[in-house]
Amino acid sequence: MSDIITYDEKVLIEENGFDDHFHDHHHEDKYKSNFISTYIFSMDHKMIARQFLITGMIWAIIGAAMSIIFRLQLGFPDESLAWLKPLLGKWITINAETGIGSLQPEFYYALVTMHGTIIVFFVLTAGLSGTFSNLLIPLQLGARDMASPFLNMLSYWFFFLASVIMFYSLFLSTGPFSGGWTAYPPLSALPQASIGSGAGMTLWTVSLVLFVVSVLLGGINYITTVLNLRTKGMTFWRMPLTIWAFFVTAILGLLSFPVLASGFFLLMCDRGLGTSFYLSEIFVGGAALDFAGGSPVLYQHLFWFLGHPEVYIIILPAMGLVSEVMAVHARKPIFGYKFMVYSILAIGFLSFIVWAHHMFMSGVNPFISNFFVVFTLIIAVPSAIKVFNWIATLYKGNLRLNTPMLFCIGFVSMFISGGLTGVFLGNSAIDIQMHDTYFVVAHFHIVMGIAAFFGMYAGVYHWYPRMFGRFMNETIGKIHFWATLIGAYAIFWPMHYLGLAGVPRRYYRFDSFDAFSSFSSMNQFITIAAIVVFFAQILMVINFFYSMYYGKKMTTKNPWGASTLEWTTPINAGHGNWDGNLPVVHRWPYDYGKNGQDFIPQIAPMAEGEEDSH
Amino acid sequence: MVFNTSDNSRINPQKFALWSAMASIVMMFAALSSAYIVRQAQGNWLEFQLPSMFYVSTIVILLSSLTLHNSYRSFLAGKEKQYKSLLVATFVLGLGFIVAQYLGWQRLYALGVDLKGNPSGSFIYVITFLHVAHVLGGIACLIVAMFHAFALKFNVTKRRKHRFELVVHYWHFVDLLWVYLLVFLMISK
Asked: pLDDT digits over A320-351, tens only?
């Protein structure tokens, strides 16, 4: 029987913490002066985190709703979509004789494009990394706020501006951009290429350039904060894995997003100034355009130099969140802490030298492809180390199977399933058959879409009390989990078979192709599963907002019994996080079950004769 | 605006943030350089001599770094007059650099190298233009530094030294960046 020792954070911080003279200069929190500076133009990282989260949620609903509309088209191409006319207007054409409303093919492409752009950039980059980097970096490091709260605020508002512009583009009479979320030229570079390539593409580019600014401002801040504002005793090897993940994510963003900005800059020159970076000799309507000698593959190189690190910018924060949440709810130290860190670093490094595996079929030299195949497959090593460590953490753990923990386990399941298909796709020979099929769609949705969402949900359910002082409803949370887990597999598992059979992605309908028409019942099944999963997410959103006002109240500072610093702050911490002294750290963040104690917080000094756990 | 809770042995957060920003600017130009190399390797590449005006601008911006550095040293040494005049000289040289780049573009155009023509020309316009945009950011910093120099009472404090250092670092950075770009454009001909 283990002794239950309770720690009084207040005593520990007041006795062992250090005074950074936070309250010497102003007697009350000068930032909390009025409604606008508290809730809107806030510089408090905790409020900015919530702003990122809620904006991300709104985008997630929009992005998911788009997928439902195009799934309806794919699953039931002959059913009438006339009931969507009030929402989509002229994008639904109603046959005068039969009364059947059908989705305009142009808008189908716009929906697919916007779904990708929104989920990848606005939800899984800003909504995930923006939310949790902001919330946890200062709290888990024992800092009052980010290195520059002002730049941090700007980071959110640039994201907001990017959001407004992208949202506006949805309502253009020519529709939003429709050339795929990767925006390959010539569809993106020639305003006359398709209806979405005109104003839609212009707004898309402007929005994403603002988004890049937001990511860079945020990233500079995260890196600087991690390197400079750790509290006393918080050495690198005492940082929670969340912080390691956010830190490496920020470095990836800082080094890869500027490359995308360069790529966009050249694209803008092609669109507006008549240069020929990406456009070669092109005939439109029988007439030759002025462009000569450009290379669309050049854009692909620049895009994927960002694009590949981008998928790790999405998944690394989810990995960090899962590692932390899993250790807390398994009541065990994370297995192989240092290997987890080295794996994060290895993944971060490798992510920069694999980009051309997105371009095996773009006519790149097959011998160069070999290089990219080898490095792509090497990523399996650190990924497998991480998976092994998560499973080893669960092994013989004292598991609490609550919603955050379930999502952690679901994350590992998804990451394994999606990772395995990555081994197929990373191979340039097999990619000849698989590329641009539903196999690719299934792979990346599972490994970086669903998995990243699971990591995010684990984080939201786990840190919800820290953000809002209340708990989310467990029953609804569990329904949400099981519906999403089973539903996500029901959506994406069959897609592997479609892909192996060569069904291409981005097609408007398959029933008119002899080779693909036999899959119509499978497509219907996928669509129905997608609708179920969509409503499960709506349930989560309802739970989220309902719990803000009516959820179970958080009565103790540390309801999960976690050892990290964010649970030592007051329940409704103001700007500056800790009332008096800053906490001082004496140990690593995973002292669970050590020496017969349930957990030992990082602020507890080492007992006599006690040794570091790693 | 900065919550500096760290002890003084650590590097200053603002300076570190500036260096991070520089790293991202470096990546932006690294992308353009590699795009240049990739595109050049594909052939159909117009060869021409860089106008000598670009060498003039190089000398101008190198001089401006020298004056700024000496201005900084005069500031530390408490030589108010020298500090102010060298700062103004830097500002003038900075503007001179931009004018020289503009003249360089005109020479290029006169050579028949157009923005729209062969990508080899387009790249030079785009790369130099993006660099000038970053120099303009440096000019803005110099204006702030001059504002500090002339509007505030002369006083060598830690805070002002630190602020000035941020300007100095950035300015040297855009200077070195230009030297790199020039060498790159010369070598990769």
From this structure: 999 999 999 999 999 999 999 999 999 999 99
Does the pLDDT at position A23 exceed 70?
no
- Interface predicted TM-score of the whole assembly (ipTM), two decimals: 0.90
Indicate the number of domains in chain B: 1
Report the alpha-carbon distance of residue A195 to residue A212 in Å, rounded. Answer: 25
In a domain, B165, yes or no: yes
**Within a domain: B112:** yes
Q: Write the residue in A143, A148, A269 that is nearest to B17 by C-beta.
A: A148
* Chain A residues near residue B19 by CB distance under 8 angstroms: none
Q: Which CATH number covers residue B120?
A: 1.20.120.80
User: Under an 8 A CB cutoff, do A148 and B2 touch?
Assistant: yes
Per-residue confidence (pLDDT) for residue B1, from 0 to 100: 38
Q: Which of A187, A193, A60, A173 is CA-nearest to residue A115?
A: A60
- Dihedral sign computed on CA atoms, order A544, A548, A552, A553: positive
Angle, CA of A185, A189 and A194, to the nearest 5°: 90
pLDDT exceeds 90 at position A64: yes
Query: Has residue B4 been placed in a domain?
Result: no
- Sorted by where each begins, the domain ranges of chain A are 9-277+291-596
| Cβ contact A294–B23 (<8 Å) | no
Residue A33 has pLDDT above 70, yes or no: no
CB contact under 8 A, B27 and A302: no
The domain of B116 spans 49-187
Among B93, B96, B87, B95, smallest CA distance to B147 is for: B87
A220 touches chain B (CB under 8 A): yes
Average pLDDT over residues A229-248: 95
